[in-house]
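anyone seen this seq b4? input:
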Amino acid sequence: MAVAIDWRAEAGKLAFRDKAFIGGKFMDAADGKTFECTSPVDGKVLAKVAACDKEDVDRAVKAARAAFNAGKWSDAAPKARKRTLQKFADLIAKHADELALLETLDMGKPITFAKNVDVNAVVETVRWYAEAVDKIYDEIAPTPKDSLAMITREPLGVVAAVVPWNFPLLMAAWKFAPALAAGNSVILKPAEQSPLSALRAAELAAEAGIPEGVFNVVPGFGETAGQALGRHMDVDAIAFTGSTEVGKFFLRYSGESNMKYVSLECGGKTPNIVFADSANLDAAAVGAASGIFFNSGQVCVASSRLLVEETIHDAFVEKVKQMAAGFTPGDPLDPKTMMGSMVDKGQLDRVMGYIEKGKKGGAALTLGGNQVRQNSGGYYIEPTIFDKVANDMTIAQEEIFGPVLSTITFKDTDEAVKIANDTIYGLQACLWTNNLTKAHSVARRLRAGTVNINNTDGGGIEVPFGGYKQSGFGRDKSLHAFDKYTQLKTTYIKLG
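predicted toks r here
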């Protein structure tokens, strides 16, 4: 029988890595500056972390470029990179409890999800790309008999990954795993709210045998370290996940510097459409609640707009409210907790501000809307549901990134599709129906990178993930991720 872990006791034993990891070594920021890494669990400072800036980014880029040019990793046989990445995945799995605890302390998600969802998925991601790297074939083009045209994939060089705080290590792994597998050198900039697991992962990468300079981590702020990476003349690509607003900055930085490749996974405002002909409305209600309240709503694909056919609207919304009771915020270090905190006070204030906008905008607040657990010192908001929402209201159009659900009524399929597509975003959409023809026809009409039918969170590492419209471009996950971290070369040979 497994022994229950006392996570709070384990938290007291942690040693935090608080320096940048550049060229295979931990080091202070060049100017010695640090920033406080505060836990949203209780508002206490966990560590003072190196605040990297332009000089530190330059050091990391030079280390990454030198490693790439040396070829120890970039020119290694695919099977050699595979073996090292497999060892890296094994080490992540070995230290899963530690990494999960770092995630929970850093951004406030329940420890059960941090371990069983996030860290498990990180291990799967690294293993999947390790296995994929020696199974990708180049091409021979159809040419006349006196010619030979080879199309080969080559690593880009130095790849910078700038990732968010809601799934700190998993979003990073979606980028560094395929980038490393392809032979690139990587510079990872974690969000300033959640740098701790990335710094520990860098140490494990070195232990696995990834050469010095191939995997670097520069903690710091977006306007300093992030901008320096975006503008650097020797960074070949930026892979970014975060807000649409910041994604546009990276497009500008690329144009003003060296036209580096940019791939963006940005905001979302997922429509979750429930038709009256859905055979299992209880399952749809569970999906609607988990789709918005999981991770405290801090998910880019959170199903924040619930579109319900008018003939079932009242009864269905009541089911969702009942399901929301299972997401009462609790202590993230308690394995029974299903919903944790906001990542920091700034995010708490942002979400509470949107709740006020919903009230003033004419929506009907039917559940929640309050900050809770204030005596904990952390940043918690209870599940919140607005009804009688019009799709042009602020709470229906802007990404809140919190546990706030807007319910909208529709009369028929055409109206549902119109409302669903009436947003600047196009990351994900969901629909519930048992009519196969309707499912396929509506899915075709929805302008989103992923359409889930009869679920709100479909697909593992084997399927691509990314958006339409201002949700960005480029795909994480699946073999399509290699498109972001390689370039095609044609070698045309005249024979005879």
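The chain has two domains: 7-266+472-490, 271-460. The chain has a mean pLDDT of 97. kinda curious what u guys think
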